[in-house]
Design brief:
9% helix; collagen; 245 residues; Jelly Rolls
Length: 245
């Protein structure tokens, strides 16, 4: 079928197809007429939900809101650890001189002390022992002629004695205002030199007297002194009564 005959046949087929397409278009009813859908099909089912769209871009910041009301104060927290000390600040300017103070009472140092020794042997019993070797008696509160210390400054005093014992026993006592305060007794050992001593704190009022003496009758006056052995008596003021002075 090659040649003019074939070409003619193909041309006829194309014309027929074109006429069929135009006829079909002309047979479609007008959708705007009342009877347009009298031969329409059944409604279809809803389609599935589509996938969510992507997040949009962030919007612009809005205007700053008003300040809210102050909240309730919370409980006090635990105390923190001490921090490292800061640097020393700059030195400030000197302040103005203060007002002159009132004149105080004049300072006075109260002194009363003595230290004496014995020069004679075997003093008599029941009378004050007269220590007439003066080591210190600057205030003259000790009287070597009587063997007594006279209180001139009321206060608390310390007294002590150290006695050499030889040939016989020694029993001595320290007196205050004709009353025995303490006793000291030493029993002599043959062919030996002993020591007897004692000390005491006393409160004295002005005019009180203190001394040592051999106590009792009998052979108890073995107090001894020579160029190499001393028997001493001393006393001094610790502190005065400030409410009196």
């Amino acid at each position: 079928m090659r040649g003019p005959a074939g070409f003619l046949l193909c041309s006829l087929l194309l014309v027929a197809l074109r006429c069929t397409e135009v006829s079909a278009q002309d047979s479609q009813p007008d959708p705007k007429t009342p009877c347009a859908n009298w031969m329409g099909g059944a409604p279809g089912y809803p389609g599935h939900n589509g996938l969510p769209g992507r997040d949009g871009k962030d919007g612009k910041d809005g205007l700053k809101g008003e300040k809210g009301e102050e909240g309730v104060q919370g409980p006090k927290g635990d105390q923190g650890e001490m921090g490292v000390p800061g640097r020393e600040g700059p030195r400030g300017f000197p302040g103005h001189p203060g007002q002159k103070g009132e004149k105080g009472e004049g300072a006075f140092v109260y002194r009363s002390a003595f230290s004496v020794g014995l020069t004679e042997r075997a003093p008599h019993p029941n009378v004050p022992i007269r220590f007439n070797k003066i080591f210190y008696n600057e205030q003259s509160h000790y009287d070597a002629s009587t063997g007594k210390f006279l209180c001139n400054i009321p206060g608390t005093y310390y007294f002590a004695y150290h006695l050499t014992v030889y040939l016989t026993d020694v029993k001595v006592s320290l007196y205050k205002k004709d009353k025995v305060v303490i006793f000291t007794y030493d029993q002599f050992q043959n062919n030996n030199v002993d020591q007897a001593s004692g000390s005491v704190l006393l409160h004295l009022n002005s005019g009180d007297e203190v001394w040592l003496q051999v106590y009792g009758e009998g052979d108890n006056n073995g107090i001894y002194a020579d160029n190499i052995n001393d028997s001493t008596f001393m006393g001094f003021l610790l502190y005065p009564d400030m409410d009196v002075h």
